[in-house]
Amino acid sequence: MPIPTRLVLLVWTAVLTACSSIVVQTDVSYDARYSATVLDVYMPPPSDAPRPAVLIVHGGGWHDGIFRSSMEDHARRLAEAGYVTVNIEYRLVPGGGEFPHAVQDCFCALAWLRGHASELNVAPDRIAGLGYSAGGHLVSMLGTAASAEVVAPDCEAGPAAPLNAVVSGAGPQDMTKLAQADAVIQFMGGTSAAMPERYLDASPLSYVAPGAPPFLFIHGNADYFVNIDDHSRRMQDALRAVGASAKLVEIPGGGHIWNNAAGDWELPLTSLDTPEAQIALVDFLDHAIGPVP
Predict the structure, then answer these.
(1) How many domains does the chain have?
(2) Average pLDDT rounded to a whole number, residues 18-42
(3) How buried is residue 101: exposed, middle or buried, by Cβ count under 10 Å (0-12/13-18/19+)?
(4) Cys bridge to 179: 33, 192, 197, 265, which one at CB 3.0-4.6 A?
(5) Kind and range of the H or E element at 251?
């Protein structure tokens, strides 16, 4: 049975800090070479102790048209819950975002966040990534592919250690399973027949190894674009096989954008926006990167 919306509101209310307002700093450049590589910082009320942080990566098929504003509600809610939250933009297709550039941009944003940890009062070893769809793919790469030369960033911020935790909402984990999708072909810069190794290089599944950070997958079981079995379930199994922590929250009736399960949800919603997902997210972050001070 779907969890009522009022219950998830009670859960978020329980973790919210006092009624102090958050401070948002917008359009911060994390790589001055490109106009697209900017981010917004959502600062919770001050704390004496360093805070955990969440790096948010928007979806949209790696393609121009969907931007970080689509994740603004998530960013604000997490900041209100006490996390320093960074909501990023990255190069898109067309315009330079073809693989591996979008991945490199995200690594540069992560390196920027760790490099500014002191001034942001962030614990640099307590940073999670949250993304949906293409953003779920990108945060999964940040969790698994930090040592891969093919996506090594060349920005001023330099290379970045992996995320300390990953939340992937309906994120592609094996690009070979989406080889017929136009958005994927454009992102990859060609077909899988022409460049099979490139499709493997862009797949988080290719990089699973012991020592991977904990993962939470949130995925609708009626997602006909990013199939739950081909992606989140296979990635979960691969992570568990190497001793990593991985959990899958399956949203009954959840599609890639529309969720058609019975219940009192407002539509359209992504699986990441559902009450089940929000409750799982609170619990996962609390255990994976620790509670807020």
Answers:
(1) 1
(2) 90
(3) buried
(4) 192
(5) strand 246-251
Domain with residue 85: its CATH number is 3.40.50.1820
Quote the tokens at residue 271: 């699986």
Check: CB of residue 67 under 8 Å from CB of residue 32: no
- Mean pLDDT, rounded, for 258-263: 56
Q: What range defines the domain where residue 86 resides? A: 24-288
Is 14 a member of any domain? no
Q: Is the confidence at residue 269, as pLDDT, over 90?
A: no
58-67, 105-114, 132-141: least confident range? 58-67
Please state, in angstroms and rounded to a whole number, the distance separating the CA atoms of residues 100 and 201: 9
Cβ–Cβ < 8 Å for 171, 226: yes
β-sheet with 246-251: strand ranges across: 23-29, 38-43, 84-88, 51-57, 122-132, 165-169, 215-220, 246-251
The rounded distance, in Å, linking the Cα atoms of 137 and 199 is 13
Q: What is the pTM of this model?
A: 0.92
pLDDT digits (tens, 9 = 90+) for 51-79: 999 999 999 999 998 899 999 999 999 99
How many angstroms separate the CA atoms of 281 and 73, rounded?
A: 14
1 within some domain:
no
Confidence of residue 258 (pLDDT cuts 50, 70, 90): low
Q: Round to whole Å and give the CA distance between 222 and 231.
A: 13
| Residue 13 within a domain | no
Q: Which residues contact 203 (CB under 8 A, 6 or more apart)?
A: 172, 173, 174, 175, 176
Whether 144 is covered by a domain: the verdict is yes
What is the per-residue burial (b if ≥16 Cβ within 10 Å, else e) of 47-83? eeebbbbbbbbbbbbbbeebebebbbebbbbbbbbbb
